[in-house]
Amino acid sequence: MTRNVIIAGAGPGVSGSLARIYAEEGSRLGLLGVEQSVLAALTDRVAEAGGSAESVVVDLTDDAATRAAVTQMGEHYGSLDVVHFNPSVFREKDPLALTPDELLADVRLGVGALLTLVQAARPFLGPGARISVTGSMAADKPWFGAASLGVQKAGVRNLVHSLDAVLKNQGIRAVSVTVRGTLTSDGPFTPDRVAAALRAAIDQDEASWATELPYDG
After folding, report:
1. pTM summary value
2. Which Pfam families match (predicted)?
3. Cα 48–Cα 52–Cα 56 angle in degrees, nearest 5
4. pLDDT tens-digit series, residues 29-45
5. Is the terminal CB of the chain with fewer CB neighbours within 10 Å at N or C?
6. Architecture, CATH, for domain 4-215
């Protein structure tokens, strides 16, 4: 099925693999990220896989700029079928070294930016549209050495539950996939395998919809 897909926090890892999966189906992609060179490389990958992509360099913590970018893409495509949220911050500081301002800055990207993304996309989302999030086992088993990451992943998963509750009566559903492993270049936790799990979660049966699904490899 051809879809109009926005990927926020697009890069070479899981989000890039998800973009390629949709590209192979002929979907049209809108890519949001902070590095032009990364977006350019991913746009080429999408084209090679048979899809098409528009990209915008944007800091997702900039509310006004992100809203403008999403609105631009929504107006360009006319509607949006899938909105995927990928970013988080890995800051290697334990709770005794992490400052409140650093924690809030990390949560601003890893959780708060999802609000901006969904609110801006909402006018273009109709029945059958889907919101997805790359989750992590850090939500349940945080590593003290990167304390803010667990807070981000727990927070964004919680927010997904609330978004789904608000939107489900309009036929729009939200899901996070909790990746219970560390990304590797081979084995069950490659970006391609995790992206396939995300793709399956997005297309799960609405009659038995789950707002959080684990990926155990």
Report:
1. 0.96
2. adh_short (PF00106)
3. 115
4. 999 999 999 999 999 99
5. N
6. 3-Layer(aba) Sandwich (3.40)
